[in-house]
Write a structure and sequence with these properties.
The structure is a single chain. This protein has one domain. The radius of gyration is 18 Å and the shape is elongated. About 5% of the residues have low confidence. The longest helix has about 35 residues. The protein starts with a helix and ends with a helix. It contains 3 helices and 2 strands. It is mainly alpha-helical. About 50% of the residues lie in helices and about 5% in strands.
Length: about 130
């Protein structure tokens, strides 16, 4: 059960990470499929949907991105990537790029699970009346 907006951000981040993992796996599976175009989740659109309203935070620098979260506006966009070059099979899947994407996504997922675990440990501590 997620109790606050911070937890909702973690939950949605984990969902996006799982979606990205599925897309990367699909891209790798279709590396030899003629005419296949790699798929990607448009995280910029997703992030902008998260930044519309919600968590009050103070920016310490004018160049920092303001972060406000509204779970109702969270929509990850899956798009076909037509910007990269096409190989001899007529598709644009680059195994090296996909593996880097997989490693990056795993790091992101692991960070989010660490945040979730810490949040649950704090909740457990409050419920058990222990000091963390």
């Amino acid at each position: 059960m997620f109790l606050d907006r911070g937890s909702q951000v973690i939950k949605e981040g984990l969902s996006i990470s799982a979606l990205q993992h599925d897309l990367i796996a699909e891209n790798i599976a279709n590396i030899s499929t003629p005419g296949y175009r790699r798929k990607d989740a448009n995280f910029k659109m997703t992030l902008s949907g998260m930044m519309n309203e919600g968590i009050p935070m103070q920016r310490t620098h004018s160049g920092h991105i303001p972060f406000n979260f509204n779970p109702g506006q969270m929509n990850s966009i899956i798009r076909n990537d037509n910007t990269t070059s096409v190989n001899s099979f007529g598709n644009n899947v680059d195994l090296d790029k996909e593996m880097v994407g997989m490693a990056t996504n795993n790091t992101y997922f692991n960070a989010l699970t660490s945040f979730a675990n810490k949040k649950f440990r704090m909740l457990d501590s409050v419920i058990s009346e222990r000091v963390v």
